Amino acid sequence: MITNRSLFVAGLLYGVLLTPVPALAESSPKLPSPDQLKAALLLPEDLGTDFARRASWNRDPDRYDIATRSKVCTRAVKGIVPLYRAKAATWLRRKDNWEGVSEYVVSGTRGKISALERAAKVMVRDCSGVTVTTDATKETIRKLSIGRLGDAAYGIKLRSGFPGRNLDKESMVAIDIVIIRVGNTMIALEHDGHVGQFDPALTRPAAETATRRLLEALEAS
């Protein structure tokens, strides 16, 4: 009797081991193809008729002097560098102007994307609030309120100009960095301008359009 019961239990266990577990299969969703990621990228006309593609761009978010004013901010910005190494990337520039938008789209395992999202959170936490003022310049980094985009969104704004000026309106250098997560895919969008050629009102619609285009590309799978 004991032997028959043992054989019965063993048979059940054997069957369980051979049966696929749906939960495990569902925990690793299919990643978008490289073509889908490229299809999600912003087009010049998404930003306006006066924008055009630029062949290349600097892929180092920690290149900005403003970010290096704080050691913790420097380390935080280095955490988002993998986003700027994305194969799916585009660089758009306003014609005859020193204003541009660059976009990078990365997809990966849940662990990889979770690490990048943590880096985005750290960037906002450690860079927001930095202020450096000298006799000639004033530089600030603040949290950028971008609203609800995708599953999560994080942003900072960097400004550099002259002391005593409203840097949101009279910056010599202005940079907005927005990071958006949609499932296991992330967007890094950077909007920058120099010598007063920067429209801060462009950042949000650019980020909204980038999110919409990514969702459309993912749904096309």
Number of strands: 8
Q: State the share of residues found in helices, binned by percent.
A: 25-40%
Output the number of helix runs. 8
From the alpha-carbon coordinates, what is the Rg to the nearest angstrom?
23 Å
Principal-axis shape: globular
Blueprint of the fold:
Layout: H1 2-18, H2 22-26, H3 34-39, H4 44-47, E1 51-53, H5 71-78, H6 81-84, E2 88-94, E3 99-107, H7 110-127, E4 130-133, E5 138-143, E6 152-161, E7 173-182, E8 185-194, H8 203-219
Antiparallel strand pairs: 1-2, 2-3, 3-8, 4-5, 5-6, 6-7, 7-8
Question: How would you describe this structure in keywords?
Answer:
221 residues, globular, eight-stranded antiparallel beta sheet, alpha+beta, 8 strands
Structural notes for this entry:
The protein has helices at 2-18, 22-26, 34-39, 44-47, 71-78, 81-84, 110-127, 203-219; strands spanning 51-53, 88-94, 99-107, 130-133, 138-143, 152-161, 173-182, 185-194. It has 221 residues and is an alpha+beta fold. Strands 1-2-3-8-7-6-5-4 form an 8-stranded antiparallel β-sheet, sandwiched between helices. It is globular.
How would you concisely characterize the structure shown here?
The protein has 221 residues and is α+β, with helices and mostly antiparallel strands. Helices cover 36% and strands 27% of the residues.
